[in-house]
Amino acid sequence: MSGTVGPSGPVAGVAWSQKHLLDVDVLSAADIGLVMKTTDAMKEILARPITKVPVLRGRNVTIIFYEASTRTRVSFEVAAKNLSADVVNIAASASSVTKGESLVDTIRTIEALGAHMIVMRHGTSGAPYLAAEVFSGSVLNGGDGWHAHPSQALLDLYTMRAHLGDLRGRKVVILGDVLHSRVARSNLWTLTAMGADLWICGPAPILRGFDAWAARWANGRGPAGHGGFTVTSDMDAALNGAEVVMALRLQRERMDAGLLPSLREYAARFGLTRERLAAARPDALVMHPGPMNEGVEIAPDVAVFDRSVITEQVTNGVAVRMALLYLLSGVHAGGFPEGAIGG
Amino acid sequence: MAETVNAGQVRVGDRVARLEISGAWLVDPVAGREGPGEIVVRDGVLEAVTWLEGADAEGVGPGGVVVAAGFLDLHVHLREPGNEDAETVASGLAAAAHGGFTTVCAMANTTPAADEPGVFARVRAAAAASGSPVELLLHGAVTVGRGGERLAALGELADAGAVGFSDDGSPVQSAVILRNALLYAGMLGIPLFEHAEDPVLTAGAEANEGYVATVLGLKGWPVAGEVAAVERAIAVLVAVLPDAPRARLHLTHLSTAGALDAVRRAKAAGLPVTCDVTPHHLGLTDEWVAGARRWAWEALDGDGAARDPWADGALVAHPYATACKVNPPLRAAEDAAAVLAALVDGTADAVATDHAPHTQVDKEAEFGLAANGISGVETALGVLLAAVGARRLTLARAIEALTVGPARVLGARAGGRGGARGLTEGAPADLVVLDVGAAWTVSPEALASRGRNTPLLGRDLPGRVLVTVAGGRLAYRDPEA
What we know:
With 343 residues, chain A is of the alpha/beta class. Chain A has helices at 29-46, 71-82, 103-112, 127-134, 150-164, 182-193, 210-217, 235-239, 253-256, 263-270, 274-277, 300-303, 310-329; strands at 60-65, 86-91, 117-122, 138-144, 171-175, 197-201, 229-232, 244-247, 285-287. In chain A, strands 7-6-5-8-9 form a five-stranded parallel beta sheet. The two termini of chain A are 12 Å apart. The relative contact order of chain A is 0.17. The two termini of chain B are 15 Å apart. Classes of the chains: A alpha/beta (343), B alpha/beta (481). At the A-B interface, helix 4 and helix 7 of A face helix 5 of B.
């Protein structure tokens, strides 16, 4: 088989072994490398006049989101359609979920309707594991509770590598509401796997538990292949010499829950402004998983200035999700056969 | 080797006409004695208990067939009335007998709650109809509907035989109600069983606050939520004692080092405080929620600190198994070690199972939405024997905490079974015969409980119960023995 049926860039000797993608904690550096290389191939497809390839033709990808989301849901939908999958979109509020149907029943129903893959967003940590137990196809976690957001962490990583190359020893700062952030947790796994010098920074009440986590992983005592990381509430120390600064969304509910005094105080102490950013390297990347509260965790002029790669994250998101859908579909089980794909 | 002779045709509920066991290891926790011996049961009566010495005792040890007084569980949920899909009185008593228990104390959080004697009557009628010889003792609710606002009919419940008062499932949230309940229950001479939890600190909690919950993104149930509640309850007890010298506070299912330290200090100060711990809080840890399946004592490093299941390859099952969701939650290995230490040193008076059966529907849900509870009355002995096998606990102390320990907590209302009486010649036989050296596999088929919600499913546990005799009647017999 030849021609423009699939992504180019064979990756010799690396096989994709995961049936589901529920968390990034199970991915080795080699697995992550395979996702990155496959994403390169998908980027190439996205640069073509026609961005559609038939690799998932006849496959049903059902996207079910139990939480409101625009960019992630649309990104998965565009990714699946670029691969010619049949896409079914279920917004949980519009389905029988509101009639009290259990998650297990919903997943069984989706399977009976012909789904080969499920992309799921859920407000409860761990929910995709329950779906994966019931569903015979592949489950791709589109974000679960505070736990994991694998495709986001992988697109973040892809974006960082596009600018910095090898991340070993490079200082990356995640700034803000880490406690409630699945993006932070997944980035923590992937960035420590890549050897980045990861710093986590924010006010103490929303870093709760992370000092203890960092202590567990200190001095090479973490999981094999993962380095340690630093946790601090000292923003200047965190930003000093940083090459990447990722701000996280701060939700108003945190004030209502008594975790923080006010948005004003947060913006003053932990908001990412041009002035604070001066402590970072002059070419530091500014990232944000979106949606942004401009003027709270990130100043408007920082969000749009020339080192901001926030819109690039969105574009890369489509390519990474194409790569993940492709790898999980198993259409080329065991990796890319030499010659089976090509530009 | 032990030899067992029995009539063979006896069915559950029938009087045990004849049971003779020789060459067994006898444990009489009331007499404080254990050793080689033999027993003879005739027409339901423990006719002879003979302690062997010399040549007769040779080769008989605590690792084989053991005969002990029947066990007493201070804390089970039988779900009837109101949730018979999860458990009935009949299935719960059958499960208890399979676990070696001849007396169980049912909690009051049924639907409706046992806040007046009419509910007791219904539960007792179900027990009588079951034909089970396991003795059923009842806790009454502290407040009407367990709502925390008005005192339940405590006096009437006492007259109807309540052995304790508890809003278990929930703490008594108001310190004023707790004070008044301790005064009233103290006047009646009945202990208050408190489920110690600060509900503000634990609002929305899903798992023990700590490393595992942080990594898994689960909302934390902090240790402070139990410690604060225990210290508050003890402070309130101290305040009522001058007015109610018979007031007694029992803290159930304690799971943290801090709470057990508070009890240790209270006992040292001579306060009338008792407590129990569960098998799952001493044998299992929060890393089971992440997918580890090793015993708590295997999850500690050489310095007594919890190991990292992500770092040492201990994750063998899927994370977020709802069978591991329980309140209070499975704790870190350091706390589990403190729970076991409290059992060993006597700070914990008893092992209670907090047997909490649930339907598959209530457990087959997202972790945060799944019901709390572990079905535990049938696996309690196995978990304790695993600790015995690991030399973390002695067999004698384990049996004591299942018999005379809980009987002392109940005092005069403990009932007249083995747990309170021991292996007494001339009394109705109330005992359990188990083979410590034989394992059994925890499977849905092996469980008599309707609740199969245990993270031990699929695991081999030591200590097969061969026969349970309750009040002279057969309560359980191993179908293969």
